[in-house]
Write a structure and sequence with these properties.
heterodimer, A: about 290 residues, mainly alpha, MetI-like fold, 2 domains, globular, B: about 250 residues, alpha/beta, six-stranded mixed β-sheet, 10 strands
Chain lengths: ~290, ~250
């Protein structure tokens, strides 16, 4: 299984280095991205140290290659405009950017909500409650259609970038509430012991409170990330074609009439592979970080 | 040896409407071991927690090592560096190893270098008798071992005063001795100690003075011999008869 995945990944890598058209390179980048994620997660080689090593390198090298292919950060490749992004690649990029950016923002909001400074606390609460009170579609819709109305005409923000910002801002509010739950679960004695040792505010937060709180909310946060991954299909309101909407557009093509079942099942399967990988990763992360369990 | 390291004058504290401390006045000399006892809810725990400002007193004066406890954060931090505290429920940091638990504050508060802090931690673990547990997590230790780590963690800040808030109350009987032994050794080394405990054997043997709390006041204060032989107040007599004959 794993060997096959690596063989396919290596094949994709070789192909990626050959001179292909923009669209083809997009596909290859998408495939590479989709492969290295499960490979990294399931690549727990028992005896095959080489594979473990290859997976480690793959985690570092493949995103860079994908970035190069997409961004054209090399003299001989043109940049792939975001308007041409689509399919699984768009889904993965939106989800990855959303997860990476929303997590720190969410943690900051959670801390802000507990802050002793009233202004910070009230702003955090206001933000969290407003964002949680609005459907995600509305947020994306506002970011993609209404924002340009308020901006000066010549200032244009990239459509995909706007979607990323919308997902990040939306998810951060939920992450913040998850993290707050974790913060509140820290026993008072932990903070008292830290204070009695002479540690002060931010040191206590950094070394005592956050490590414990974040570990406790891994399952909740990964749940949020899984839901973000699937919610990326809502970008159709911003006229972007992610995995699901690419499938829909194929269905609209007369050449593929009558293949609804195949296409939809395939898309569902791809979603499942990705989300199950995330769930599995979360499980392993919990185990790794759970060594000091009380 | 007559230097007064803790001075409390008419200390009051309220929790909402509840008047927990009703004018506590006492002094502790350097190197003295003071055992504090009293019924639950008498304010003894609140009292020692006001000494390192885990609780704020609302009236009166507390002076520790020449520094008065006020709202001044600098003073509070300075005093907390000089006072170690051991809790009933250990309060070790479960996500850090024993060694990390002990070295965290010396490194970040005392600005000690890591190798130095680790050497100090190992030395303290030797002293409390569990150097072989250095790389385990608190959850993997017995209660007695955890409490000894907590003592080592407090000592790593090289405090002048140690506060013990019922250090053996959460322990199984066979583990109480190992913790009391460490405390005995500490008392002999000349550490200034305030100990809340119901271990009267320990009090008789180690204490220079016993302070009896009831309803937020110090009811009686005496040497262990006098305290156990000739308690002066009715409340003290009742308390002693209850805990000595249960």
């Amino acid at each position: 299984m794993r060997e096959t995945a690596i063989a396919v990944g290596a094949g994709a890598l070789v192909l990626a280095l050959l001179p292909f058209s923009t669209a083809e390179r997009l596909w290859i980048a998408g495939v590479a991205l989709a492969l290295f994620v499960p490979m990294g997660i399931f690549g727990r080689a028992r005896s095959l140290r080489l594979i473990r090593w290859a997976v480690g390198v793959g985690w570092i090298v493949l995103p860079v290659i994908a970035l190069m292919l997409i961004g054209g950060f090399s003299p001989w490749l043109p940049r792939v405009e975001t308007t041409q992004w689509g399919g699984l690649m768009l889904t993965v990029i939106l989800a990855v950017v959303g997860i990476v950016a929303s997590f720190p923002l969410g943690v900051l909001l959670a801390l802000g909500r507990q802050s002793e400074l009233p202004l910070v606390r009230w702003l955090s609460i206001l933000y969290i409650e407003i964002v949680r009170g609005v459907p995600l579609v509305t947020v994306i819709f506002m970011a993609s259609l209404m924002l340009p109305l308020f901006l000066p005409g010549d200032l244009r923000i990239d459509q995909a970038l706007r979607a990323m910002v919308a997902f990040t801002l939306f998810t951060a509010a939920y992450i913040a509430e998850n993290v707050r739950g974790g913060l509140q679960a820290i026993p008072r004695g932990q903070i008292e012991a830290a204070r009695a040792l002479g540690l002060h505010g931010w040191l206590i937060t950094l070394f005592i409170v956050l490590p414990q709180a974040l570990r406790a909310v891994i399952p909740a946060n990964v749940g949020q990330f899984i839901s973000l991954f699937k919610d990326t299909s809502l970008v159709f309101v911003a006229a972007l074609l992610d995995l699901f909407n690419m499938g829909r557009s194929i269905l609209a093509n007369p050449d593929w009439l009558g293949f609804d079942r195949e296409i939809l099942l395939f898309i569902a399967f791809v979603y499942f592979i990705c989300t199950y990988s995330m769930a599995h990763l979360s499980h392993r992360l919990e185990k790794i970080l759970g060594v000091g369990e009380r | 040896m007559t230097e007064e390291i803790i001075i409390c004058r008419d200390v009051h504290k309220w929790f909402g409407d509840f008047h927990v401390l009703r004018g506590v006045t006492t002094t502790v000399r350097k190197g003295e071991v003071v055992v504090i006892c009293g019924p639950s809810g008498s304010g003894k725990s609140t009292f020692i927690r006001t000494l390192n400002r885990l609780e704020e007193h609302q009236r009166g004066q507390i002076i520790v090592d020449g520094i008065e406890l006020t709202h001044d954060v600098k003073n509070i931090e300075a005093i907390r560096r000089e006072i170690g505290m051991v809790f009933q429920s250990f309060n070790l940091f479960p996500h850090l190893t024993v060694l990390q638990n002990i070295t965290l504050a010396p490194i970040w508060v005392r600005k000690m270098r890591r190798p130095e802090a680790e050497a100090l931690a190992m030395q303290l673990l030797e002293r409390v008798g569990i150097p072989e547990q250095a790389h385990k997590f608190p959850g993997q230790l017995s209660g007695g071992q955890q409490q000894r780590v907590a003592i080592a963690r407090a000592l790593a800040m090289q405090p002048k005063i140690m506060l013990f808030d019922e250090p053996t109350s959460a322990l199984d009987p066979e583990m109480i001795k190992e913790v009391l032994d460490v405390m005995r050794e500490l008392a002999r080394s000349g550490m200034t100690m305030l100990v809340i405990t119901h271990e009267m054997g320990f009090a008789k043997e180690v204490a220079d003075r016993i302070v009896f709390f009831d309803e937020g006041r110090i009811v009686e204060e005496n040497s262990p011999e006098e305290f156990f032989k000739n308690p002066r107040h009715e409340r003290t007599k009742l308390f002693l008869s209850q805990i000595l004959h249960h």
